[in-house]
């Protein structure tokens, strides 16, 4: 999340109300964030709480069918949302070409 928003540990830690050392330990899986920290991240970055807690995201596909995505996939989706509609369509075309070439 921090890298996606191009924040240093100090900047991100300040935004979510923890020390840089605590953030470092959270990122290294040495420490679990408190509920308060999770809620601050959710509020600041409009991130799905379920994803923050479990790594799984909820979708309203097929009437609330649950699916999970990796952190990497989530980061890609976040980056995609920053693009214009035209750029998104170009990315989709590139993906479709890659899949077509792979199928051959």
UniProtKB/TrEMBL annotation:
HTH cro/C1-type domain sequence ranges: 1-52
Record's keyword terms, sorted: DNA-binding, Plasmid
CDD domains: HTH_XRE
Superkingdom field: Bacteria
Pfam families, sorted: HTH_3
A Gene Ontology molecular function term of the record: DNA binding
PANTHER family: HTH-TYPE TRANSCRIPTIONAL REGULATOR XRE, TRACRIPTIONAL REGULATORY PROTEIN-RELATED-RELATED
Protein name, entry field: Helix-turn-helix transcriptional regulator
Organism: Paenibacillus rhizovicinus
